[in-house]
Amino acid sequence: MPNPLTKSEVDAGNDPSVTKQYDTDTPIDQQFSDLYKIVDPLKGCLMTTIRPSAGPTSRAMAVAKRVGPDFLFIANINSRKFSELDKDPTIQLTFQNSSMDWVSISGKATTRSNDDPRIKEVYSKGVNAWFGDLGDGIHTGMPEDPRMALIEVKSHYITYWKGTRTSAGFVKEVAQASLTGQVADTGVQRELKDDSIQMARDSGY
């Protein structure tokens, strides 16, 4: 049901659309479980780095592997994202599914060269399509290709929104709120901070 809107809430800056959608009641392990249920099926996201003289710059990236709250990506070491991360390791990952659930992850990135053994672990068929084969036996688009490198993202802050209505329920909720002057309640927003993220790493969830 939509939330009523009161003058005292507005005067205090506590609009229900802001304060009541933050979920602090759900156990942390369940919050991480719900997070993974959103990001894992997507296989890809927008990766945002800081480009000198341009600012935040995003591009689509396939996730090679999720390790708890952290992520690995395979990328071409000649791409500009590596020089950008060398200057500023700040990074953001953004996911969104067809149900409009979204995830925003802020963190720090570490780049790893081709000698990292995890490249062979996360390499999958089809990756070579983005590298090509020079035909020299070296630049083959295979895991041993010196151009192939890893970007490891360690999450520091995660916020996400999870819908709690079906498609029909969403439409009904918004229509009812619009007609009554109340505030639609269609989902919950959560935030996971550094201490909770480290706990997830340590406990394996």
Model description:
- With 205 residues, the protein is of the alpha+beta class.
- It has 7 helices and 8 strands, in the order αααββββαββαβαβα.
- Strands 1, 2, 3, 4, 5, 6, 7 and 8 form an 8-stranded antiparallel sheet that branches.
- A hairpin with a 5-residue loop joins strand 5 and strand 6.
- The model has no long low-confidence stretch (mean pLDDT 90).
Task: Give the topology, please.
Blueprint: H1 7-11, H2 16-19, H3 28-39, E1 44-51, E2 55-62, E3 65-67, E4 70-76, H4 80-87, E5 90-96, E6 102-112, H5 118-122, E7 148-163, H6 167-180, E8 187-192, H7 194-203
Antiparallel strand pairs: 1-2, 1-5, 3-4, 4-7, 5-6, 6-7, 7-8
For this entry, give a set of tags:
alpha+beta, 8-stranded antiparallel beta sheet
Short overview:
The protein is built from seven helices and eight strands, in the order H-H-H-E-E-E-E-H-E-E-H-E-H-E-H.
Low-pLDDT stretches: none
End-to-end separation in angstroms reads 32 Å
Main sheet overview: 8 strands, antiparallel
Query: Proportion of β residues?
Result: 25-35%
Global morphology: elongated
Query: What is the N-to-C order of secondary-structure elements (H for helix, E for strand)?
Result: HHHEEEEHEEHEHEH
Mean pLDDT: 90
The computed structural class is alpha+beta
**H/I helix tally:** 7
What portion of residues is helical?
25-40%
Overall strand count: 8
Give the oligomer, counting copies of the same chain as homo and different chains as hetero.
single chain
